[in-house]
Amino acid sequence: MTLTKKISTHNFKAFLWHAGFLAFAQNFIDVDTIIPGMIVDAGGNAMHIGIMTAIMLGGSSFTQLFFAPYISNKKYKKGYLLFGINSRIFSLFGLGALLLYFNHNTSNVLWIIFIFITLFSLGGAFSNVSYADIMGKSILPEKRKTFLSTKQIISGIIVLGSAFIAKQVLSASQYPINYAFMFLIGATGLLVASGGFWSVKETIPSQLKISGFKEFKSLLRKELKENPRLKYFLGFINTQGIAISFLPFVILYAKEIFGTQTGDTGIYLLFKVLGVVLVSALVLLGAKNIKYNILLISNVVLTIAMGTLAILLNNPDSVKFLFVLGGIIFSLYSITMNGLLLEVSGTTNRTLYAGFAGAGNLLPAIFPLISGAIIDWLGFQYFFALFMAIVASSLYFIYKINCKK
Fold it and tell me: In whole angstroms, what separates CA 304 from the centre of its chain?
């Protein structure tokens, strides 16, 4: 089946369907506010937040390195995409049921929560490899940046509306009942979102064949030699990538230093969403004129500003501004990282490069664990300083990538 303009338009709408309902679901399972808030309310500490963040953010991407060789051998990836999203739906229903019928053994409950979180994250990693391949060959190249920007603004608007609903659900009852309903609603939204993937028409079969992980590593070495931009791309996501693991620790910081409550978590979610909507609208309006380099450098500057503000915090009212910046940074990173992956890779090797991107998430995978230890031993200020130093180093990789688009 050839990718025609008609099929591209159909797939454009199908991916937006998924993005829209995913955006609704995300507020109820937000990894920066809701899930770390639940962990803290369940008795978790800095190390628990570190484990959670490592699994859900860095670790989920790093495991793409191992899924990519298997999925790359398949001509069509749609079935594997659906398997991944269904795993996430199952884990959310399981997590909601666990909290709904909560027993008060905090230690056991925390570790069962981590099991469901791991399943949720692995399902995401499995589907992301397939998603990168299918999306890249299912929408015409000239429509990709418009799609990514449109997805962000539509998602932002829906997230903004559902954030108020999520805040009400979170405040309507106490832990663990409020979080149980949050996850059950999120699972239902994700189930509806999966309809978009069922509708996608996968056109061009993949030709890439990889015999195993050993050959995958060999291909990585080969691509690093033949495509100089790849190593700088990996350097970029290894450094700037830690930015998305920052906000869960801010939740812990706010609760430990300022004594914030569950209702405050809902407010932080709203402010994060405002940041997402703001930057998504600006990028959409200038999608054809704004170059990736401008977005990349701006994101580094904003990330360092976020770390600096965290150091200077002296009252709980200021915490919400960190979440505005966090929303902006997350949105910019999502646009630029996905866009750069499409630019650095080719049509036939995009699944392979998605796996390479997983390899680039080594530091984001271990940074939350290191952060948890640093916070326990030295305090939050040392964590903030290390965070900014690593992010600042990403400017070198942005300069070397030198994206012209």
Answer: 19
Confidence of residue 112 (pLDDT cuts 50, 70, 90): confident
In 10 A of CB 141, how many CB atoms? Answer: 12
Q: Please give the structure tokens belonging to residue 51.
A: 């484990």
Give the residue-averaged pLDDT of 246-270. 85
**Three-state SS string across 368-384, please?**
HHHHHHHHHHCCHHHHH
pLDDT at 79: 79
Dihedral sign (CA 258, 260, 265, 271):
negative
Measured CA to CA, the distance from residue 60 to residue 185 in angstroms comes to 23
Using CA atoms, how far apart are residues 64 and 117, in angstroms rounded to an integer? 16
CATH number of the domain encompassing residue 358: 1.20.1250.20
Q: What distance lies between CA 355 and its chain's CA centroid?
A: 16
How many domains is the chain built from?
1
Is there a contact between 123 and 84 (Cβ–Cβ < 8 Å)? yes
Q: For residue 133, give its domain range.
A: 5-204+211-401
Q: Which of 86, 83, 106 is nearest to 94 (CA)?
A: 86
Residue 35, token pair as written in the block: 């899930």
User: Distance (Å, rounded) from C-alpha 93 to C-alpha 119?
Assistant: 12
Residue 186: which of 77, 95, 58 has the closest Cα? 95
Q: Give the CB-side neighbour count of residue 328, counting CA atoms within 13 A.
A: 21
Per-residue pLDDT at 27: 86
**DSSP annotation of 73:** T
pLDDT band at 182 (very low <50, low <70, confident <90, very high): very high
Say what the pLDDT of residue 301 is: 92
What's this model's pTM, rounded to 2 decimal places? 0.77
What average pLDDT does range 365-376 have in this prediction? 88
The mean pLDDT value for 108-117 works out to 83
End-to-end CA distance of the chain: 29
